[in-house]
């Protein structure tokens, strides 16, 4: 623990270490700064009350200047030495009285907005604002019990997938509440709540269904009833196995026709290379480029991508007699197609961009289809021989 006059220049000159450390001011006892290994610096005051050393953070250096921090420290330390209110006790009281709604706001602002991707941010925001806040309202975050969480989970039993996602978001909020001093350590009320069973939807298009889809796509493109870019998107989704966002937001700079691959800088699993079959390459070659627009799937707004692929898909699937088939099922169909032509799960997983074998393993039952077909042919031939 060292001392120096805490000026802007002196603070900027403080080096980082493997662990955080404190530097206190030589002119104002109790006024200091905490230097983190990341390089961030936080002003604080330190004092003793009832035999205990207490610290209260004032703010981060940068947004908060040394002059303003010194002025605030002088006032707070003066109050403490004059027998006034204990700022650390006030801080603890404020933390403990934080409502679930206020905790959700802080969670979205300080954690989700900083650490999560835009799509995840939207999912978390939806869970907080549509499910968690209406249920808990202004209940104190500190007072939430396992029984309360069980009631929340049970309220949405009719939509088990959403109930489980909401439970996961609330659990993360409660873990951070412990880190932030709002709840006691190891008091997460979500830990013992059992999730509802989830049945993954595995819908794959048969050869007959794909022919129907192909006919409708060609007709929609020819008569102009659907955007040619929407039609191209559905073809590419089926022929590449990509996720919707990967094709919807695909830019030409990430397309390498010569190498037959897409070099995606970001995806659900990070940067990845998508290897293209010849049919996918030909589909890309047919897409008309729009000058000044970086996207492959061009939208109505100048320079933007097509933001709504759900509405045209509903029209197309209805015309093809494929009610209930989701856009994501095109990705499943790509995976099933690979297994039906004899490719193994590791290869399929690599094509789909899976990072874990377990994710691809749910398609394993399809690998038996060619064997079953062979068994059928053999048994039928033997049955014919038997008369």
From TrEMBL:
GO biological process: DNA integration; DNA recombination
Cross-referenced Gene3D superfamilies: 1.10.150.130, Integrase, DNA-binding domain, Intergrase catalytic core
Coiled coil: none
Residue intervals of the Tyr recombinase domain: 200-376
Tagged with keyword Ion transport: no
Alphabetically ordered keywords of this record: DNA integration, DNA recombination, DNA-binding
Family assignment from sequence similarity: Belongs to the 'phage' integrase family.
Protein known as: Integrase
Organism of origin: Xaviernesmea oryzae
Lineage: Bacteria, Pseudomonadati, Pseudomonadota, Alphaproteobacteria, Hyphomicrobiales
